[in-house]
Design goal:
Strand content: 15-25%
Number of helices: 16
CATH topology of the largest domain: Cytochrome-c3 Hydrogenase, chain B
Strand order of the largest sheet: 1-2-6-5-4
Helix content: 25-40%
Radius of gyration: 23 Å
CATH superfamily of the largest domain: Cytochrome-c3 Hydrogenase, chain B
Distance between the termini: 32 Å
Number of strands: 15
Shape: globular
Length: 511
């Protein structure tokens, strides 16, 4: 169902609508309406982007309302003729919108007047201004004889993706951290347009962020299903939710292991690392790949969750749970670990709201952002999920939240498995689609709560049903700013544990 609210079109998560149904407003009206809607604490922006079509530049804004489970769509347009294009910035009123306006500026040269600092986001090869070079990034600078800068990266020791971290320090104390990404722009969104086959696009979606294969591929599949009018059965919805929560448990367990490494707690490193292995091995037994590649497909699945796999999953969770609890009871009560994490790298509730954090980075500071709860999808629509919340917003909160979310994900998977309606009413999952007829001149918006947080995929089609724009948003787009803030007034030696406590994605950001 769709409905108009204050010159917007309200849709549900995963729904597709005709592009003509979205109100096109004059920019002043658009600007005022966005600001008005975002005054509500339960409304936040999940995407704002522009795309060229038929000699105009069309802007689409997607605002999620946690109270109604709806997504408000509104738009404005600009002619793409010559001359400098200018718009009044939204960011000077809503800080969280800075990343969207910066990306639009980088891609199309739109000057957002009043934006606190328009600077590149990704340095795509087809950026509007080719003179913008990655080595000329305009870092924040302080002129002082007492302060110094420390640059780390983009090339790092060990197995890590490229990113540059610029610390402004007074002695060992960090006054400011700025993170520059965009070193490995892969053109994912453009490739999703250029590759015509559904399988090609699906494999691209699986590779957006390798540790979030299930999350991103599920968001992609739901966009395609929305545009092609495909309804999946309850069994497939249940299997998708199980796969998503298994991905969350596995990554969280590995991150707890890595945090133990950063404070030299080798027992925790070894045990949590070993506990992760049976989880990803189970996923490999299920679909042939430890990270879930091949498992999520549009309209169906090649790997239905059989009775044998269900029983093995129950046994796996039983075995994992007691082993995890035994080790967690030790790791989370060890004074040397707690003291190293406690009150380090704090992001306050106010800061988290201002910068628009999502997922874990929001919930650690008492901001209730969880798409499973606010805009449910898959089996979350039938079996509600209650988000785990903490308040402190420090490294220990991020460390402890992982434990709580692992426990809650185990409980949720059991609830799904115990709901016999999912697995008795349908003998198997449907066969995946191979060729789709997408609705012409339409848009679909899909949100999924990945283990890092809110993933959003949007696709737009033309008059022939061909995709002319595909937009991907990984939660890291919002949450890198939280890592920057959490280093202020800490010693630079605190950076590794802060960085690992977020475990943000470089490649999910550098699309």
């Amino acid at each position: 169902m769709t409905k108009d609210i204050e010159n917007t079109l309200e849709i549900k998560n995963g729904q597709a609508v005709n592009l003509s149904e979205i109100p096109v407003l004059e920019y002043q009206e658009f600007h005022a309406l966005v600001l008005d809607l975002l005054q509500a604490e339960d409304v936040h922006c999940v995407n704002y982007y522009a795309f060229p079509h038929n000699d105009i530049l069309r802007f689409i804004c997607c605002l999620a309302d946690d109270r109604t489970q709806g997504i408000y769509l509104l738009s404005h347009i600009m002619a793409t003729g010559g001359g400098l294009l200018k718009l009044e910035s939204l960011t000077k009123y809503i800080d969280a919108l800075h990343i969207y306006e910066r990306e639009i500026w980088e891609n199309f040269g739109i000057e957002f007047e009043g934006h606190p600092w328009l600077k590149p986001v990704r340095f795509p090869h087809d950026r509007y201004n080719g003179d913008l070079k990655v080595n000329d990034y305009p870092f924040y600078k302080v002129e002082s004889e007492e302060l110094h800068e420390v640059g780390v990266g983009p090339i790092h020791a060990g197995v890590i993706e490229p990113g540059h971290f610029r610390f402004t320090c007074n002695g060992e104390m960090v006054l400011h951290l700025e993170i520059q990404l965009g070193w490995q722009h892969r053109g994912v969104e453009r490739l999703l347009l250029e590759k015509p086959k559904l399988l090609q696009r699906t494999i691209l979606a699986e590779s957006i962020a390798g540790d979030t294969t299930i999350g991103h591929t599920l968001a992609f599949a739901r966009v395609m299903e929305g545009l092609s009018g495909i309804s999946v059965n309850s069994r497939l919805d249940a299997e998708r939710a199980i796969a998503l929560e298994l991905e969350r448990i596995a990554i969280h367990t590995g991150d707890i292991s890595a945090l133990c490494t950063d404070v030299a707690y080798q027992l925790g490193t070894a045990v949590f690392g070993a506990l992760r292995t049976p989880l990803i091995n189970y996923t490999q037994d299920w679909c042939g790949n430890r990270f879930g590649k091949g498992l999520i497909r549009t309209g169906g699945s090649h790997y239905s969750l059989t009775d044998e796999l269900i029983q093995r999953l129950r046994n796996l969770l039983d075995d994992f749970e007691w082993r995890f609890k035994e080790m967690a009871d030790k790791a989370y009560s060890l004074v040397s670990v707690e003291n190293r994490f406690d009150e380090i790298g704090t992001v306050t509730n106010r800061q988290a709201k201002l910068i628009g954090t999502v997922g874990m980075a929001a919930r650690m500071s008492g901001v209730k952002r969880d798409i499973r709860h606010s805009h449910p999808f898959a089996s979350f629509s039938d079996i509600p999920y209650v988000p785990v919340m903490l308040e402190k917003g420090d490294v220990y909160a991020r460390y402890y939240l992982r434990r709580l979310e692992i426990e809650e994900s185990i409980n949720y998977i059991r609830k799904v498995l115990d709901n016999k309606r999912y697995f008795l009413s349908e003998a198997t999952s449907p066969v995946p689609e191979t060729n789709l007829n997408l609705s012409p001149v339409s848009i679909s918006v899909s949100m999924v709560e990945g283990w890092r947080g809110e993933i959003c995929h949007c696709a737009v089609t033309d008059e022939q049903g061909k995709i002319i724009h595909y937009k991907v948003k990984d939660p890291s787009m919002h949450n890198w700013k939280a890592l920057e803030l959490s280093l202020r007034d800490l010693e630079i030696s605190d950076f590794p544990i802060n960085n690992k406590s977020y475990n943000l994605s470089y490649c999910g950001y550098d699309l």
